[in-house]
Give the backbone structure.
Amino acid sequence: MTETSGVWDLVVLLLAALTPAILYLSWIRRTERYLTEAWRPLLGAFAFGAVAATLLAIFIEGILIGAGTAISEANPGPEFSFLNAGSSIGLFFLVLVVAPITEEAVKAWGVTTRAGQFRLPADGPVFGASVGLGFGFFETLVYGITAYFLLGGLLAGLAIIFLRSLSTVLLHASTAAIFGNGYAQGRFFGVPFAAGRHYLLAVLMHATFNALASVGIVLSVLGASDTAVAAASVVALVLAMGFAFAAIEYARVLIQRGDYPATSGPRTAVRPQSLRPKPPASGKAPQTGYRG
């Protein structure tokens, strides 16, 4: 492989990871029909997820892995073995607990930084999906480049990107959208603990997806035959993809529900200030179709 061909291979991997993420972003954007968001703020949220949120997640997870491994080595008893990422149980703890909690937290932070741009409750899941798609894009690109150098060149990298674009990227978008929906419900309608409850739901969904994706590894650790591991891995991959597509469809339903202020939120909710028409000079309240 020449230096020039290597550069072009990386460009191909970049485009392969970026293209489906942008297509998904366009799909999510078109789900909101009442006040469709302009591209610029959504691309800003996408870039925030791709750069700030992803790098912060890597930093936090690196600290947690290092601290956990140090604690496990200083206390060699079995009760601390789950903290050692080099062990099988430590790997599962990282995938099922540490990663979902950390990654959903940094994506949620990304959503809150866009709150000033919310005009409707639907903007919560729309901006959430945008942040999540950026996060999923960059993470997928990293995995693709890793496969390129370690597993066998361009085809290996493209295969990883293709599979993750049909599963993990959608998962990141949907879980961030679900948090965004809860955050918008709290911001627009004062629903108590909505953001926290939706964050926990996002973490649970992320952990469930990771558990499905890890079935083959679990069976391998348990000593199952290669045939059983291969068959289970294929079935688990299909289930994980189905889970991801179901999750993003649910996120789109949330966007559609919040797309018009008169039909979103609790029936007793107070209309947010940004959506209230200003009264005329006479002081008489204007007639609107909104009943809260």
About this structure: The longest helix spans residues 39-74.
